[in-house]
């Protein structure tokens, strides 16, 4: 059976709290819940809906978000070193996960939020 696929990008900040990030975190949390509700509503139309929550993508936006919550580059670098894999996520790693979600390799997955964070939400 063929399925159509819809996916969203959230963030690990939709799962955890950090100081001074209420609007950003609330929005990302809402994306996760939107994904779950759409999966429920669209499943009967053979539409799978999933989201991806990466953490710290190697992009200027990572540092911009850090600055917006009061972290300078050195503080953000130290924060990253304290994570399991001690590095940021590369953009192609996020793209690969979206390619997987769009493929026929996971036809039974819907309503899921896949966390791509190198273990950052477990420490």
Automatic annotation (TrEMBL):
CDD domains named in the record: SDR_c
A GO molecular-function annotation: oxidoreductase activity
The keyword Chaperone belongs to this UniProt entry's keyword annotation: no
The entry's keywords: Oxidoreductase
Stored InterPro entries: NAD(P)-bd_dom_sf, Sc_DH/Rdtase_CS, SDR_fam
Record has Oxidoreductase as a keyword: yes
Signal peptide feature range: none
UniProt record similarity statement: Belongs to the short-chain dehydrogenases/reductases (SDR) family.
Protein name: Uncharacterized protein
Organism: Rotaria sordida
């Amino acid at each position: 059976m063929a399925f159509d696929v819809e996916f969203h990008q959230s963030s690990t900040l939709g799962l955890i709290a950090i100081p001074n990030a209420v609007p950003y975190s609330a929005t990302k949390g809402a994306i996760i819940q939107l994904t779950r509700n759409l999966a429920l509503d669209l499943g009967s139309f053979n539409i799978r809906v999933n989201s991806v929550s990466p953490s710290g993508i190697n992009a200027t936006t990572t540092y911009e978000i850090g600055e917006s919550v009061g972290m300078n580059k050195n503080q953000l670098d130290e924060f990253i070193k304290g994570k399991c894999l001690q590095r940021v996520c590369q953009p192609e790693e996020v793209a690969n996960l979206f390619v997987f979600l769009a493929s026929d390799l996971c036809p039974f997955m819907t309503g899921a939020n896949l966390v791509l964070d190198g273990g950052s939400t477990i420490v």
